Amino acid sequence: MNILKHLYRDKKKRYIILAAAIVVVAVIMVSTFFRPVRRATKAVDDGLSYLTQMAGKSSSDIESNIKSMQQERERQRRIEAREKALADGTVTVWELFDDYVFLGDSRVVGFSEFGFLESGRIIAHSGAGVKDIAESLETVEYYNPSWVFISYGANDLGNYASAQDYAQALNQQIQGLKEVAPHARFIISSILPVYSSRLSSMSDNYNHVDTFNEALEQMCSENGYTFVDNTELAQEHRSEYEQDGIHFKSSFYEYWALNLINGEDAN
């Protein structure tokens, strides 16, 4: 009899959790009802897909998925509130950068060169690659930042045999950063596309940036770093590249910065 009661309670709990999942999905659908049809349709499709996936799942799996959905919903609310403040002019994207350092190559130099971010916190120079991170440890230790933004690639792709080798090389360098900035979170920018026939002729890797980004994303997932994909952003703002197909005009940096900040909010 006790076994039957236990089974009944467990079954009842699963029904309650599943009902909660249905409510969460319904809220998402309703919240998007008055948005454009394409987004509302996607929400419905996502909701139905979620319910299908939950069929046969354990109560703990369902609880975990509900929590993840709620966290993502809260993240989206924070991002929307941030973007509204930016649109209202009550805050600038540059004010959102606080207690950070940014390591990278000449493309990162633009953040300080155009006067957007504090030059001392931009640890970057023309021709830099991930191997140069080791030379930056003293400066990173001085700032002991909460956030470490990293963006390389334009000078690296011709130097590695595979995407996995590149991702591993970056991870090895980050280990040194962890020692001098033990409380920092690491935000890894995807390699932004390179539209340069000169570089493409030097190495075929420049034609396979997506493959390198996939390896970086996997490495970040395995090590608890935040990976921010800028591929779509770069393609959307292709006109804001300089004529060399590598560097950016000043107008591109605000879009890139906001994408990084929104990505930093992922965890």
Q: With helices defined by DSSP (H or I, 4 residues minimum), what is the helix count?
A: 10
What is the number of E strands? Answer: 5
How can the largest sheet be summarized? 5 strands, parallel
Share of β-strand residues? 5-15%
- Helix content range: 55-70%
Compressed to H and E, one letter per element, the order equals: HHHEHEHEHEHHEHH
Structural class, from helix and strand content? Answer: alpha/beta
Distance between the termini: 45 Å
Overall geometric form: globular
Low confidence ranges: 1-8, 32-39
Radius of gyration: 22 Å
Mean pLDDT: 82
Strands side by side in the biggest sheet: 2-1-3-4-5
Task: Give a structural overview.
The chain is 57% helix and 8% strand. It has helices at 2-31, 37-54, 59-88, 106-113, 137-143, 163-180, 197-202, 209-223, 231-236, 252-264, and strands at 100-104, 122-124, 147-151, 185-189, 226-228. Strands 2-1-3-4-5 form a five-stranded parallel sheet, sandwiched between helices. Mean pLDDT is 82; it is low at 1-8 and 32-39. It contains ten helices and five strands. Helix 1 (2-31) packs parallel to helix 3. The chain is an alpha/beta fold and 267 residues long.
Compact overview of the structure:
The protein has 267 residues and is of the alpha/beta class. The protein has helices at 2-31, 37-54, 59-88, 106-113, 137-143, 163-180, 197-202, 209-223, 231-236, 252-264; strands at 100-104, 122-124, 147-151, 185-189, 226-228.
Topology:
Layout: H1 2-31, H2 37-54, H3 59-88, E1 100-104, H4 106-113, E2 122-124, H5 137-143, E3 147-151, H6 163-180, E4 185-189, H7 197-202, H8 209-223, E5 226-228, H9 231-236, H10 252-264
Parallel strand pairs: 1-2, 1-3, 3-4, 4-5
